[in-house]
Amino acid sequence: MATTTADEPTRRDFIHIAAASAGGVGLVALAWPMIDQMNPSASVLALSSIEFDLSPVEEGQQVTVMWRGKPVFVRRRTQKEIADARAVPVSSLPDPLARNANLPDNAAATDQNRMSKPEWLIMVGICTHLGCIPLDHQGDYGGYLCPCHGSQYDTAGRIRKGPAPENMYIPPYSYLGPSKIKIG
Amino acid sequence: MAGHSTYVPKTGFTRWLDDRLPILRLANDTMMTFPTPRNLNFWYSFGGILTFMLGIQIVTGIVLAMHYVPSADKAFDSVENIMRDVNYGWLLRYMHSNGASFFFLAVYLHIFRGLYYGSYKAPREVLWIIGVLIYVLMIATAFLGYTLPWGQMSFWAATVITNLFSSIDQVLPHVGTAITQWLWGGFAVGDPTLNRFFSLHYLLPFVIAGLVVLHIWALHVPGNNNPLGIDVRGPQDTVPFHPYYTVKDAFYLCLFVILFAIVVFYLPNSLVEPDNYVPANPLVTPPEIVPEWYLLPFYAMLRSIPQKLFGVIVLFGALAVLLFVPWLDTSRVRSMRFRPLAKQFFWALVFDCILLGYLGAHRPDAAFPGTGIPMLPFARLGTAYYYAYFLLILPLLGIFETPKPLPASIATSVIGSGVEQVNAPAE
């Protein structure tokens, strides 16, 4: 075996670095399946859309439907609730964005931008703070009150008070007929 | 005090084994002859009690896992099956669920003991840090275990705690949501979540057991601290661990187990939220969500902050700050027996934690009963004091406080004068 000075790279150094690098790449390649297996599986992703008939819902009433394991509120608002929500200037809202999957990300949080028909609020019923289900027709704004940490939403599901950072989300949905919607 | 071994194998077999695997030597040196300060009091018995409780939790847990079904459809029923049909299932489950509470009771007394006597100071910083890591893993394990019965509290605790990570969205948009969906294995807490929580709940106690070995190892290098907080100067300051502390620990363990048995047999549901006997319903959040009592102070801190991300930072920071206590406390004196000011701030911290626990059990908009005084300002004050104790009071007291004079040695303090006539034991 040839003798070399310590500061000169040898073939053995090269082999050490190459072996460690190959091992490192192999570890990373193996780690990814271990991590990604925890993401939603194909069967979970397959349950992506549902249809719902609006006609049985009375004015002032709210029903909850399940979509992707989450509750979706379908609320038929009264004229007063619509008027209350429309009277609020967007500049006074903690979250100025509509959070509506059917509109661009930067749409303003006007009442009009929160729904396609003023009477029907269709919204993922999950508090944007820590994921509890808010109680409807409660709180200072007649909209929603989250029982967990006291966040309050108005009749358009917009955050008004409390620790929640964002308005409740509007899922992607479309009208299949005058009183039938498809969520997802 | 990790000195040379005094173990002498007595039989042919033990001599043979000692040359091949000196495990009896290790047991003898760490559990029999280990020199221990002669003045350890009641508060030093919780290390042994905690080891015992870890054993109880692992043994009852393994047995419960033989009957439990980690599936969203069957978990609740399988727990009821354990309670009603499995032979002694009620006993095993009540031991396991109340065992968690007693585990935390002991660990809190153990931690406050360490804070009072300055057990985290040099040369025991690594010992303390390992202890904090054990405590954090205990919290994780307890949370995961709490979700397994799949009652309403289980489900909503899982939802709220996993959603803590969604606060990352406020600094890195979509990253927090991606992490929560990764934790859930879906778009909400569900079957995949329950399965992985069960898997991890089974794993973590063994990680804790491994850390306990490191904790004891790190204890046996410098040896025990003691209520005087002064160093051991020689054999006259110590007694062998066995029989002195084996007997003392066993006595207090018996008292602790009597208390445990009273709760398991007569008050088994006293520490449980009744809502957890309602099967999980993803469409209805219970009117009040509260964690188990041992996490209430942290819950009060989380809720006292009106901003989501900052609240989460305050919650996790309350645990992280413990890691730095050895360097935040600047005083040269370990034991608060000789620190007149620090002692008062310490008891204020104890009171503060109890107060936060009380506030955490009530709705954030609640008022003190019969007075109409809102609780929220007190929760904020309590949170502020918790942080101030570690970040302001401990660093400053070391500079401004004048400690009382320390005794010359453990032996003179315990036995009085005439120490030189007392024979050094065990050597």
Features:
heterodimer, A: 184 residues, alpha+beta, four-stranded antiparallel β-sheet, three-stranded antiparallel β-sheet, 3 helices, 10 strands, elongated, B: 427 residues, mainly alpha, two-stranded antiparallel ribbon, 2 strands, globular, disordered C terminus
Task: Please give a structural write-up.
The complex is a heterodimer of chains A (184) and B (427). By secondary structure, chain A is α+β, with helices and mostly antiparallel strands. In chain A, 21% of the residues lie in helices and 22% in strands. Chain A has helices at residues 11-36, 42-46, 79-86, and strands at 50-53, 62-67, 70-76, 120-124, 135-136, 144-145, 152-153, 159-161, 173-177, 180-183. In chain A, the strands form three sheets. In chain A, strands 5-6-7-8 form a four-stranded antiparallel sheet, with no helix packed on it. In chain A, strands 1-10-9 form a three-stranded antiparallel sheet, with no helix packed on it. Chain A is elongated and about 90 Å long. Chain A starts with 10 loop residues before the first helix and ends with a strand. In chain A, 33% of the residues are buried. The mean pLDDT of chain A is 89. With 427 residues, chain B is mainly α. Chain B is built from 16 helices and two strands. Chain B has helices spanning 12-20, 23-31, 46-65, 75-84, 89-116, 125-147, 152-163, 175-184, 191-220, 241-266, 296-304, 308-320, 325-328, 340-360, 376-400, 410-415, and strands at residues 35-37, 238-240. Chain B has a two-stranded antiparallel ribbon with strand order 1-2. Residues 421-427 of chain B have low confidence and may be disordered. The chains are: A alpha+beta (184), B mainly alpha (427). The A-B interface holds A 35, 38-41, 44, 64, 66, 68-71, 129-135, 146-150, 162-165 and B 156, 159-164, 166-167, 170, 181-188, 190, 192, 196, 282-289, 302-303, 305-309, 311, 363-365.
